[in-house]
Amino acid sequence: MNILKIALFVGGAIFLFPKNALNQEFIELIEGSDELRLDGKTGNYIVKGNVIFKKENTQLYCDSAYFNIVNNTIRAYGNIHLNKQDTLNMFCDSLFFDTKKEYAKLYGNVRVRDNEYKLTTDSLDYDIKKNVGIYKNKGEITSIKSNDQLNSVIGYFYPESKQFNFRNEVVYKNDEFTVTTDTLQFNGLSKKAFFFGPTHIMNAESNMYCEKGWYNLNENVGVLEQNAFIDRNELFIAADSLYYSAIDSIYIGKYNVNILDTTNKVGFNGDYAINDESKNFSFITGHALAKRFDDEDTLYIHADTLYNYLDTTRAPKLLQAFNGVKIFRGDMQGVCDSLTYDRKLGEMNMYKAPTLWAKKAQLSGDTISIYEENNEIQRAFLRKNGLVITHVDSTNYYNQVAGTSMNALFDSTAIRRVNIEGNAKTIYFLEEENENDTVIIVERKGMNRIYASNISLGFSAGEIETATYRESPDGMLYPMNDIKKEEERVEQFKWSIDNRPLSWQDMIYSPEEKETIISIYRNLSYFKNIVFEQL
């Protein structure tokens, strides 16, 4: 962000009028004019040809002038040149100077320049007493040594305080970028540039926008506020407030933060975010949400806090999520306390009471590891207390698969096969479908409970289709009316469907926030209906 160049450029405009340059007690008319006469009616000395006035080390050249000693005024015309120590030169078609009020006006083709900068405008006012210069009908400042250029409708200059204000259609250009804004202010003492109104900072690589902002030249830091965003070819960052430090290569976003990486098809949202480009590291918190955009679906990961790490090529390497983790993607959702996601390996690890839902199945364990290929789930490994549950429709019964550890194999997000190793248990309800007058009647025959050392199960449409039991299986089939309560569910049974995320929006808002959003929506709908009724 090269906003500091704007500050350097505008700061050079201090050349305009050094204080006390024209306010000594007398003005001297240098000998050599072609004609000098006194108009008795007006009290004006009329001077023509090779006119030169001098005041201290400032000289005024012109073709003709009206010099009134009584009124303390000079009106100069034609080829006006005002020179200050050969470093400041001002040109115009006509000039009015009130020496008593210490006020000057320059008219027509006004040009002011020093050794580095040039100002052109059609008129310029300078109040020597207040030490302020003003143009009000478009002005252009250009650098003699570079291609820097600033245009605005109105410009105010306060040399003593080194404050410079530009308003209305402000456009700054150099070889690298262009800035357009409504108001630009710069203070030469604090080295701060301020932007007000819709502001665009554009170059070949990015477009930055804000409606209020500032940049500190001394510290090389700046802030973009109000609908602020930075849009690069591959990266979009938006927030209510964006802080940038050039020295540290750090971005800080506050409130409504939105980060979109189109190259790697990932995005982040949150209330607060830090991006450290030098360390390839990002931190997001407050309604934090990570997004991975796939061809057919999007994976959302929410947590209180997200950490994102990039490799040396700035490709996603590792995502860490802490506290209140929730996952949502199409037919797969999950919850846990913390999570790591290695994009390079395609491995996601869920820790502390993890639960995963894939279509009709609920998976849980002490930890769950998910393995991907081409952004599609291939396998889930449930370590210790592994459990897979599916609900039996229209009943309070559940098909269950439990064991010390499990491998669940997937076709996309549908479970295809589950291999249970160690203390394997299955409980599932036998059903028989009969068709009666085009109505399918499901009749439950009983509950099958089988224990074995290892079990392999095949699934179809979320239901157990085949089962292979190894090493001394122990089975029991209970008619529906004779099911023992203690054998109806495995020891670690826990059905947590109420925790299943319904959408990514459902994940990031608290119950209180959801109620507020619903209340606002209801109120808007109510007023909308009233408007339609009136129409």
TrEMBL record:
Residues 30-182 form the Organic solvent tolerance-like N-terminal domain. InterPro entries: LPS_export_LptA, OstA-like_N. GO terms for molecular function: glycolipid transfer activity. It comes from the Bacteria. Keywords: Signal. It holds the Pfam family OstA_2. Gene3D superfamilies: Lipopolysaccharide (LPS) transport protein A like domain. GO terms for biological process: lipopolysaccharide transport. GO terms for cellular component: cell outer membrane; outer membrane-bounded periplasmic space. PANTHER family: LIPOPOLYSACCHARIDE EXPORT SYSTEM PROTEIN LPTA. This is Organic solvent tolerance-like N-terminal domain-containing protein.
